[in-house]
């Protein structure tokens, strides 16, 4: 598993943001066409957000499982092609081309997946029976727990697992009734379809020379199969409720910090297992992508723990994480560390020391750069081993950022670049592409020069995020040609 890649560039776009007729981007024809577009643009990287099944708020960072895939990403076209649905099954439902309506989309996509399951059990696509059996055996370490978790959640009206009856909360033997078997079977089959379609997408990416950057949040959702099936790996009380919650102290994004609500790991218990759950988690992620961005990397050095019951993240404290011992174990198990360290926020020298000891690239965000010449996010201060971004999924679009940037930052930008800011998105793209950073990435919204209304996420808000979609053909024409020009001019062109 190599963790070294040459000077290169790429784009950030979550699959849900792809165009298509089904109300949400998926891994079908539009995703394959997107890879072809990246190849035409001579890019190397397609960066995505986590692809797990999402719950409340539709956030990819709050998933029902860190191992499973999101069935909203299933392609109806590929299910028709594979003989699991008829063309008539996917006709008659139209969706607007704009932002994702998650409630409507989830009902539609799950309905199609359940219909495919019914067809499969009645004899359609019989050639898939042996591959499905093999998949269930290969994923047995997590698939059964996840399927059972989702099946019970259905029967409990979608309530979080810690509000289920006690015998289900504690997974008492015999509590899972036989009538759940069909529901669990459906969820296993859905995962089979997801991984089958994803591997087809990844094979296409490999053929076109495109590599995928995935994303692993350091913490998992409290309402997840991960916590339900492995409660001893977390700091929970006798009722299996979190003793402390994850978040970050007040920072650039929020004056009261961010209270994420995730449970903290019991790192001592995990160390006793050789970090087996984490090794399995990363191994599973590398089946989907080539490189992983570790979200909130600083949590491996120290994490912000907020007592359960607090309304904000202000009254927390830093508590040590597992440090280099964790990564030494992971490297030994996986044979390498093709990781990006998300080293943003309230970062102390020991975090940078761990990053550098592991020889991991950190992140440089150009929107954070323009308060003076010593700012580490300015290109002249970069090490080569880093990834520079115009902005991330948590930032405003660059055009939106510029509209509200303080005047002193605008003045320094003009002095630094010799540009007036009238083409600000491409000014930052040029800075990133021209920099010494090994890798440079831009959100597609910046390549398209889009305003604030097109941002992906506003941190600290629980609703209305993750809905943005790219218009069909938006990157064709001048924007694509300009991207090619920059990529070739600054020696980042693939192949």
Plain-language structure description:
This protein is α/β, with parallel strands linked by helices. Helix content is 36%, strand content 12%. It is built from 17 helices and twelve strands. It has helices at 29-40, 76-81, 102-121, 129-138, 143-155, 166-169, 181-207, 225-229, 267-272, 276-286, 324-334, 349-357, 398-404, 407-417, 424-434, 444-447, 478-489; strands at residues 8-12, 45-47, 211-217, 244-248, 258-263, 291-295, 302-307, 317-320, 339-341, 362-365, 386-389, 439-443. The strands form two sheets. An eight-stranded parallel beta sheet has the order 9-6-3-2-1-12-11-10. Helix 1 links the parallel strand 1 and strand 2 (45-47). The longest helix is centred in the middle third of the chain and has 27 residues, at 181-207. It is globular and about 70 Å long. The model has no long low-confidence stretch (mean pLDDT 95).
Question: How many β-strand runs?
Answer: 12
- Write out the strand line-up for the largest beta sheet, numbering strands in chain order: 9-6-3-2-1-12-11-10
Shape: globular
Structural class: alpha/beta
Major pleated sheet: 8 strands, parallel
User: How big a fraction of the residues is strand?
Assistant: 5-15%
- Mean of pLDDT: 95
Q: Percent range for helical residues?
A: 25-40%
Briefly, what is this?
The chain has 17 helices and 12 strands. The chain has helices at residues 29-40, 76-81, 102-121, 129-138, 143-155, 166-169, 181-207, 225-229, 267-272, 276-286, 324-334, 349-357, 398-404, 407-417, 424-434, 444-447, 478-489; strands at residues 8-12, 45-47, 211-217, 244-248, 258-263, 291-295, 302-307, 317-320, 339-341, 362-365, 386-389, 439-443. The longest helix is centred in the middle third of the chain and has 27 residues, at 181-207.
């Amino acid at each position: 598993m190599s963790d070294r890649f040459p000077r290169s560039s790429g784009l950030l776009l979550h699959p849900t943001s792809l165009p298509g007729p089904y109300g949400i981007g998926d891994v079908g024809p539009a995703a394959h066409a997107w890879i072809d577009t990246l190849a035409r643009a001579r890019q190397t990287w397609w960066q995505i957000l986590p692809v797990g099944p999402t719950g409340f708020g539709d956030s990819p960072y709050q998933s029902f499982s860190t191992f499973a895939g999101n069935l909203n990403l299933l392609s109806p076209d590929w299910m028709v092609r594979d003989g699991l649905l008829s063309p008539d099954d996917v006709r008659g439902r139209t969706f607007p081309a704009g932002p994702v309506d998650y409630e409507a989309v989830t009902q539609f996509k799950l309905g199609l997946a359940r219909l495919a399951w019914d067809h499969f059990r009645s004899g359609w696509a019989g050639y898939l029976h042996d591959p499905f059996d093999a998949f269930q055996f290969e994923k047995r370490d997590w698939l059964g727990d996840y399927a059972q978790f989702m099946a019970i959640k259905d029967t409990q009206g979608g309530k979080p697992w810690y509000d289920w009856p006690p015998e289900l909360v504690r997974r008492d033997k015999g509590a899972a009734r036989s009538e759940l078997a069909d529901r669990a079977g459906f969820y296993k089959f859905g995962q089979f379809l997801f991984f089958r379609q994803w591997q087809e997408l990844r094979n296409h990416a490999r053929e076109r020379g495109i590599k995928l950057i995935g994303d692993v949040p350091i913490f998992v959702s409290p309402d997840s199969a991960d916590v339900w099936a492995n409660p001893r790996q977390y700091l929970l009380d006798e009722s299996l409720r979190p003793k402390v919650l994850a978040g970050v102290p007040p920072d650039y994004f929020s004056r009261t910090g961010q209270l994420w609500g995730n449970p903290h790991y019991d790192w001592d218990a995990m160390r006793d297992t050789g970090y087996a759950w984490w090794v399995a988690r990363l191994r599973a992620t590398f089946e989907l992508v080539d490189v992983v961005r570790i979200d909130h990397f600083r949590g491996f050095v120290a994490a912000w723990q907020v007592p359960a019951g607090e309304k904000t993240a202000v009254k927390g404290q830093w508590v040590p994480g597992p440090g280099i011992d964790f990564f030494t174990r992971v490297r030994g198990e996986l044979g390498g560390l093709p990781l990006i360290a998300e080293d943003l926020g309230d970062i102390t020298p020991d975090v940078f020391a761990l990053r550098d000891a592991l020889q991991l690239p950190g992140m440089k965000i150009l929107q954070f750069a323009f308060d003076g010449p010593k700012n580490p996010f300015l290109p002249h201060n970069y090490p080569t081993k880093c990834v520079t971004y115009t902005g991330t999924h948590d930032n405003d679009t660059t055009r939106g950022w510029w509209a509200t940037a303080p005047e002193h930052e605008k003045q320094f930008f003009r002095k630094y670049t010799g540009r007036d800011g009238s083409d600000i998105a491409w000014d930052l793209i040029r800075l990133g592409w021209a920099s010494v950073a090994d890798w440079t990435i831009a959100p597609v919204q910046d390549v398209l020069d889009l305003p604030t209304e097109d941002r992906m996420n506003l941190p600290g808000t629980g609703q209305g995020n993750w809905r943005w979609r790219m218009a069909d053909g938006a990157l064709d024409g001048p924007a694509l040609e300009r991207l090619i020009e920059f990529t070739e001019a600054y020696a980042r062109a693939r192949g």
